[in-house]
Amino acid sequence: MSPHSPNRSLPGVFTRPAAPPDHVIRYGDHADQVIDVRREGARPDAPVVVLLHGGFWQAAYDRCHTRPMADDLARRGYVVCTPEYRRVGQPGGGYPGTFDDVAAAVDAVLADPPAGGPVVLAGHSAGGHLAMWAALRHRLPVASRWYAGPPAREGARGHVLGCVALAPVADLGGAIAAGLGDGACRDLIGGRLDRLAETDPMRLLPYGRGRLVIVHGAEDRVVPVDIARRFAAREPSTTFVELRDTGHFGLIDPLSRSWPSVVDAIGSVARPSR
């Protein structure tokens, strides 16, 4: 059974009320090609967090369940951009549409950031995979439709300081082999393992783009922590934070005891001098 199966109750953060975004950026014509922006009176030079939601890339799960964490980060002085993207089960979702949308959404934020501070790419679960993938687009072949040129110089507007991945599917090939998500990982790429060369963060290393922090719960039963351990062993620049007595969803719940570690991880990238 999928961890997100309707037969399994979802954590309260999925249904907790949260404020609507301050405004919405549209980056395409599809209804899901939008980015929610929350700024909560942030300073003009505030750091920008691009927050990609999880849900095993499936149409049943959208950005709304990340609103509580986005609200909390906005209250802490960040400008939070939460993209939606086409997902598996929707026309155009999966490969290549999901990757097209994430690349376009990130590029839209970098081209015209809603604040002047540095940009942090972040995501949870499947969104952690997408955040890492977006941070590694400079490692794609130049001929790839998603190739992004060398990172902008530090201090430039739209400069990506790094990536914070929360319980990410960091090894897509390994997740497919393990059958995670009742086959959702395989569905993302249409069952074509040759597509892993362009879609699997593990296969795009070395990282070479600012800081990379992974936060993962040792008791995660949705995306087992061994996936993050393998990635961190392969990429020595990774700061790997493994939290004891923590499962999958505490990392997106501002009311959980794990949340301060998430806030610290994002701050360590966005405000490294603190």
From TrEMBL:
Transmembrane segments: none annotated. Residues 43-231 form the BD-FAE-like domain. Coiled coil: none annotated. GO terms for molecular function: hydrolase activity. It holds the Pfam family BD-FAE. Keywords: Hydrolase. It comes from the Bacteria. This is Alpha/beta hydrolase.
